[in-house]
């Protein structure tokens, strides 16, 4: 799995150099009409939504494996990526965001109602990974073309002898789009603004 950690999350994990920041956490639902039919392009997306202040992101690739043995030896083995999961946590999952990603009802008063009939929309997911390698700071855009939010259980903590600050989990399940791309990473970019522009371009490049 790959983990992207917020600058203030309290730890630094070494992936592709030193990684120490993960801002700009956005998703966008698929467009309403024929969003994922062109094998040569990314899906078409609607309006992107800011998911909240990001604490950490971990993606896990799910691989299907099979092998055949003959004469007490493995003769052939096949490993294929089936799908993937993206586990994220944010400092606060606002009701409007939860309604958008889970397909739940948000009343005019701002109350959020979850239903057994809720259906999370499919869409894209993007974030920025801030990194440092050999003294040079750079940014990478990370983009998942086809994901769907998955509701998780919530733990509500009572007040104890110590103070504990926790965020909200927001997890996604990724499947195969028509273009068959599971994740896209940008080249090393010099500024966070350039990484933001790169992510925004993925949400809009198939719009026309």
Explain briefly what this protein structure is:
This protein is mainly β. It has helices at 95-102, 192-204; strands at 2-5, 13-14, 18-21, 26-29, 49-50, 54-70, 73-90, 105-106, 112-113, 122-133, 136-150, 168-174, 184-185. Residues 6-18 have low confidence and may be disordered.
Question: Layout of SSEs?
Answer:
Elements: E1 2-5, E2 13-14, E3 18-21, E4 26-29, E5 49-50, E6 54-70, E7 73-90, H1 95-102, E8 105-106, E9 112-113, E10 122-133, E11 136-150, E12 168-174, E13 184-185, H2 192-204
Antiparallel strand pairs: 1-6, 2-3, 3-10, 4-5, 4-10, 6-7, 7-12, 8-9, 10-11, 11-12, 11-13
Could you characterize what this model shows?
The chain is globular, with a radius of gyration of 19 Å. 10% of the residues lie in helices and 44% in strands. By secondary structure, it is mostly beta strands. Mean pLDDT is 86; it is low at 6-18.
Which key phrases capture this entry?
208 residues, mainly beta, eleven-stranded antiparallel β-sheet, two-stranded antiparallel sheet, 2 helices, 44% strand
């Amino acid at each position: 799995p790959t983990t992207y950690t917020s600058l203030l999350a309290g730890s630094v994990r070494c992936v592709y150099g030193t990684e120490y920041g993960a801002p700009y956490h956005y998703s966008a639902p698929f467009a309403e009409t024929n969003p994922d039919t062109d094998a040569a392009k990314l899906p078409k997306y609607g309006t992107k939504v800011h998911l909240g202040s990001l604490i950490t992101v971990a993606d896990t690739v799910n691989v299907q494996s099979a092998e055949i043995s003959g004469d007490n030896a493995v003769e052939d083995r096949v490993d294929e990526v089936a799908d993937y999961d993206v586990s994220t946590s944010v400092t606060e999952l606002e009701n409007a965001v939860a309604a958008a990603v889970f397909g739940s009802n948000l009343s005019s008063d701002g109350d959020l109602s979850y239903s057994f009939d809720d259906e999370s929309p499919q869409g894209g997911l993007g974030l920025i990974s801030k990194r440092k390698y050999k003294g040079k700071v750079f940014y990478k855009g990370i983009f998942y073309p086809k994901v769907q939010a998955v509701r998780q259980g919530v733990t509500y903590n009572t007040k104890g002898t110590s103070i504990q600050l926790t965020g909200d989990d927001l997890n996604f399940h990724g499947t195969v789009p028509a273009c068959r791309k599971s994740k896209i990473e940008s080249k090393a970019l010099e500024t966070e603004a350039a990484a933001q522009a790169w992510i925004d371009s993925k949400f809009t490049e198939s719009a026309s």
